Structure formats: structure tokens, C-alpha cells
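Troubleshooting log. The previous run stalled partway through. Resubmitting the same two chains, unchanged.
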Amino acid sequence: MQRSERFIRLTKWLVDRPNVPLSLSELSSRLNTAKSSLSEDMARIRAVLEAEGEGTVTSLHGMAGGVKYQAGVSRARREAFCADMVRRLSDPSRILPGGFLYMSDLLGDPDVLDTVGQLFASRFENVGVNVVVTVETKGITLAAATARYLHVPLAIVRREQRVTEGAALGIHYISGSERRIQTMSLSKRAMPASARAVIVDDFMRAGATAKAVENLLSEFSAEVAGTAVFTATAEPARKLVSDYTALFELGAIAEGQPVDVRVDRAWFEPDVHPASAAVEPPNAVDHSKNV
Amino acid sequence: MQRSERFIRLTKWLVDRPNVPLSLSELSSRLNTAKSSLSEDMARIRAVLEAEGEGTVTSLHGMAGGVKYQAGVSRARREAFCADMVRRLSDPSRILPGGFLYMSDLLGDPDVLDTVGQLFASRFENVGVNVVVTVETKGITLAAATARYLHVPLAIVRREQRVTEGAALGIHYISGSERRIQTMSLSKRAMPASARAVIVDDFMRAGATAKAVENLLSEFSAEVAGTAVFTATAEPARKLVSDYTALFELGAIAEGQPVDVRVDRAWFEPDVHPASAAVEPPNAVDHSKNV
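Second attempt completed without errors. Output:
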């Protein structure tokens, strides 16, 4: 097989399946190529991805020896993404009565989901997470994207116990905003046996929901590796959970006023896969001009 | 830039963003490569993907001239996926009291989601869909995966109107199984102006929910290009919606009995991107052995 063909196949197989370990022996037999050539190819792919700042190929030392692709977002792409999100989130037309911010368009935008999934996964991919947990409904798309890039299952906490979830563990908690008793439950089968979870959600105010999920997970004897949210309000500054990370911090939300949106700078350092001589990925063609 | 490096970059850029049009002019300047060489590279990538039966690269004729990647699932991978799903779905331990089938593990499995997303997207990618619509909660992960591969936004119909969704259009309908009046509503902002939707859900019995979504979408003057569900019961054979496709058909669900699960053969013909001299992607390494 020609080397160009190997590069195309290998790159596709890797990028198609983030965090999935692939055996070098199996790749070698599928491509009818010596393991030594394959290792050279992999080194080349890794170098190109790292130069672009867009992920890497990790070697796995084990019985078989293998590799896996870990996605990454280059610094330039993070900057552009964050600037775009700040612009869109701060738009006063998003403000709904009661001081809520309309975000469902962003939470249903495939580019936003993919980028956030890659960012959240980069943060948690090396801490042994084996499940992503979210609470229905709005956080599900972000959590599913994160689970894709971590390559772990997604478990969805339900507000009401459902017959289709089978036996479930439920708890009561006091919601932050409404100060009333609420319930949440999680299917027993949805959780791995020795679970180490990352909690993903779209929004955090006081953190009552995240705290309740932590409590629910402790009933499963699950560890919580951390909580990642898309947006969190600046106030109250002290949340009910200590170990959380938010991509965007929202200032006061008042009708007619632009929302003050800040990017958590922690997302820009440390630069996990520093870019050198980066070649940025191309922009999408503007459909309106092209079709 | 070396040709091998171009192949790695181009393959990654394409595979990372299914159905996103990329301009040849921009690629040419990013890679500092003549458009003619780039066209040759693209032809090579297309040939390799098509030989593998795993998608293609489509040329876009427009002002700028461009390309986009469309994902595909090779026949062998479809066969393996369907056999695995039939095995897992027919397991009697999934049967819950009341004749329900536990599926949340599959609906949270990143490999299942990715494959179903690719299959559903292949079915609808050339019929001008500009939004994927689902109903909370269980269908959301499948719908998000489909939206990723179609590269269109996802709109989630809510069971109750929520303050965070802004102005919403709501309807009442009679649920199939419980014979009672239910509500569903969809945020006005969540839908594109001239919407052409594909409805995605995890399960269909009589089709009352899908029919209700169709009615709701007609209130938005949206067209429905079709409905795709992961599973549908064989009975009742006559559903309330006519234009739907199910990946798996479920026979009678009775406690302790294996469920009769059938694959809709329509998913195997016509073979959109027929494989010749296919090289199948490698299997993932079994973690339990390797780590």
C-alpha cells in the first residue's frame, strides 16, 4: 500500500475515534505494513497534529502496544471560539424575563458542541474518568459531546423517576433558585461499577444542582473527578461545589443591557499541546455566498 | 509542504467536520499549495474513503469551489453494528416491568451514538434538511449525533414550557400508551426560518409522539423530510406517521423471553458508497487486556 494511502486511512481511523485505543499489530495486518513503518507513520501524524496544536497521538504501552488519538483545540481556535461565544452570549436580545439567558441555540449548534466537547475532554482525559454525568435536559448535548471525545458512556440524571430507566436511586434536594424540594434519580444500570465521573452541565448559579448530583453519585460510591459547565454566574461567587470549571462567567443579567461575559483564562493555560508553526484549520465556506 | 503532511492535515480537517463546506482557495493558501495539487490530493482522499466504504468527499460547485466530507458506514461495519445491537437488544435482562425495554446504556454509548448518527445522516444528507428535531429526553443523544454528521442545528421539543426557552409554541396531543392529554412545546427561536426537519427519536410504538411533533412543526410552517427512530415495535404495524424509518424492529416484549429484534434491511440497500477492495477500520483494543 502506498504511503499516502496509509496516511489517509490512519488519520481517518484515529480522528474518527477519539480516545479509542488501536492495536499496532492489528493496524499492521490491516494495512499489510511492517510495524516499524507504521510507527514512523504514527510519529509523522503526531508531529503534524501537534504542530497544528490540534490534538496528538498517544502511545499505549501494553501487551499489544497501541495508539490513540486525543483531540485538542489549538490556542488560535480557542481564542476565536471564545471571542465568538462572548459576542453571542452578551447580546441583550438573549435576555428573557426573570433574568434568564436564552442559550438553547448554542446548546444545539453542532460546532459549539464539538468545540466544547473537545475542550472539556482535554481537561479530563488524563484523570481516569469512566463516565460523564449530566442532568436532563439542557446539559445533555454538551455532555454527549464530552463523552464522545473522552470515549466513555453518558449517564443522564432524571428529574422524575421513569419506568424506562429500571431500578433507580433517587434523592431529594433544595433547588437554589426556587428554594423548594426537588427530586433527581439515576438508573442503577446507567453507572459503571467503579465509577469515576465528570459532571457536565450548561449552567451554574449557586451550584445546588451540581451539589445534588455529587450527593447522588456518592450514593453510587462513585468518585467525582470534577464538574465542567458551559456558563456560570459571577454571583454568588461562592458556589456549593468547590471543584468546578466554567468556560464562561456571566455578569448581572438585566433586560436591555449587554451581559458581561468573561472567559475563564484557565482554558488558555497550561497549553496542553503547544502549537509551533501552527497551520490553522480552514474556515467553513459561507453557505449564503456559495449556494 | 510535503505531500504526506498535506494528506494528514486535509484528512483531519475533513473528517473533523462532516458536511462542512471548505473552500479550495482557502485550503490552497493555508497549505501554500497550488489548487491543482490540492484537487489531486482530494481525489486521492476521496478514492481511499470510497474504497473503504467509509464516506466520501463531495465537490461543491459555487463561486469559490469547495469540498466537503460526508461520513458513511461501510457495509461490513453496518453488518457488525447491527448484529451487535440485535444481540444486545434481545437480551431478556433488558425487559422492565410493564413491557418496557431498557435502552439508556445504548443511548449513552459513544460508539452507538456515532454509528447511528452516521447512518441517520447518510439517509438525510442529500434532501436539504436544515434542522434535527427531537423530544426530550431519551432521543436527544441520537438527535445530537445526527445533527453533528448533518451539520445542522438541533431543536429539542420540551414536555413542559420552560422559562429558559423564551417564547414557545405549544400543542396538546393524546399520548399513545397512556391515552391522556399531554403537552409539548418548542422554542420559537430554536427553529430556522424556512425549516426542513428530520425528526429523530429513540423509540416508536404507535407513533403518537412523532405525529404530535409533525403537528407542532406544521405550526412553524416547517417541512418534515422524514422521521428516523432507533427502535420501533412491530405492533401496531400501522403507525400514526407514514414516512418513518426504524433501525430495529422489536417483537413482543414479555418478561423472561428474548426479544425478537429485526434489522430493517433498507439500511443495507441501496449501498450509497459501495465498497470495493474495502479495508475495514481496526477494532478498538480491549481495555481489560491492555491497561
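Takeaways: DSSP finds nine helices and 13 strands in chain B. Chain B has a mean pLDDT of 91.
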